[in-house]
Amino acid sequence: MTIKKLTTIGFMICALSVTLMASGVDDADAAKRIRWKMASWFPSKLTQLGSMGKAMVDRLDRVSGGNIKIRFFEPGALIPAKECFDAVAKGSVDACWSTPGYWYGKEPALAMFAAVPFGPRAGEYMGWIFYGGGYKLWDEIYKKHGLKSLPCGVIAPEASGWFRKEIKSIDDLKGLKMRFFGLGAKVMEKIGVSTQLIAGGDIFPALERGSIDATEYSMPAIDLNLGFYQVAKHYYFPGWHQQSTVFELLLNRKKWDALTDTQRAQIEVSCGDAFRQGLAEGEAIQGKALIELKKKGVTIHRWPQSILDTLEKKWAEVAAADAARDATFKKVWESYSAFRKEYAVWKDLGYLR
To answer: How far, in Å, CA of 180 to CA of 308, rounded?
Structure first.
């Protein structure tokens, strides 16, 4: 046999080997590919609240090279949003785009990881969660329920609420029916407001019909799109109840544990980038929205310090009561409070007032 023929046969054998190896890798990869369905509390086209979750799964698809595809389902398309916690824990739904504040009824302490009245701005909040012991506690709570939750985005301060009439004192708030979220709702109830947690798409009709007298929802750019200014013309700041709000990717724990290290890292990186997107975008779009709202006849108010002082006092009472009746809330509250006390040393020196 000639050298030329031997060389040709050698190349053919090498090519066959490479083909077989590639086929084996493809088969192995195929077995590990993730194709999940994700329910959402927020519509994908809702600025930041929903669009951030949709962008995250699209980014994850690119980061993983198509190895992980999570399909975003609009609210109610898979399950009612309020059923996310139980459905994901049971594995009947793979994932949910949400915020821990919706699970107060399951675990009061989880609301501490969403938004805290008179709480920190995004930088400080992230410091506690990622480096101050917050996420360790977060993960322990979800683990009890067979869940894995990843911090997956943050937005800037929200507005404090829309009212038909100007609010000049705490007494003007008493007796109002108001849509309100999270721990802030507990504070409002302390001063005599009747609160309801209404989904974003249902707020405008409720306000228009008079089922509620007032509402808070989110930031100016989001509230503008939802049209609240057509019914209520008095818009209040600052959002004492949500100086920053954290979002989550809620996953079934067993499914998370079954992922490869690389897949888990790809999901974590995609969620981490959602923090960048959420904070940067949120800060960039509010000024334009406020200018537009003023053009539409909205009166922008800042709460008098006396009202803020009263609200903060009531928040202290709410936190103390929850800590007294729930050991887990107490543990989280103590961790959060200790971090804020330590952080204050840096905050007072490092930042302009």
So the answer is: 17
User: Which 8-state DSSP code applies to residue 299?
Assistant: E
Crossing angle of helices 134-143 and 122-131, in 10° steps, is 60
Q: If 0-12 CB within 10 Å is exposed, 13-18 middle and 19+ buried, where does residue 204 land?
A: middle
CA of residue 260 relative to chain centroid, distance: 25
Element (H, E) at 295: helix 261-295
Q: Are 243 and 119 in contact (CB under 8 A)?
A: yes
Q: How far apart are CA 62 and CA 68, in angstroms?
A: 9
Q: Is the dihedral of CA 225, 228, 229, 235 positive or negative?
A: negative
Please state the φ and ψ torsions of residue 40, each to the nearest 5 degrees.
-140, 145
State the pLDDT at residue 31.
Answer: 54
Query: Among 217, 172, 169, 210, which Cα is nearest to 193's?
Result: 172
The residue assigned the tokens 């030329």 is 4
Give the residue among 61, 63, 56 at the shortest CA–CA distance from 98: 56
* 2: CB partners within 8 A, 6+ apart: none
pTM for the model: 0.89
Q: pLDDT at residue 295 above 80?
A: yes
pLDDT exceeds 50 at position 316: yes
What are the residues whose beta carbons fall under 8 Å from the beta carbon of 238, sequence distance 6 or more? 157, 160, 302, 303
Q: Evaluate if residue 300 carries a pLDDT over 50.
A: yes
Q: Are strands 34-40 and 68-72 parallel, antiparallel or unpaired?
A: parallel
Helix (H, G, I), strand (E, B) or coil at 98: strand
Asked if residue 23 has pLDDT above 70, the reply is: no
Structure-token pair, residue 37: 């369905």
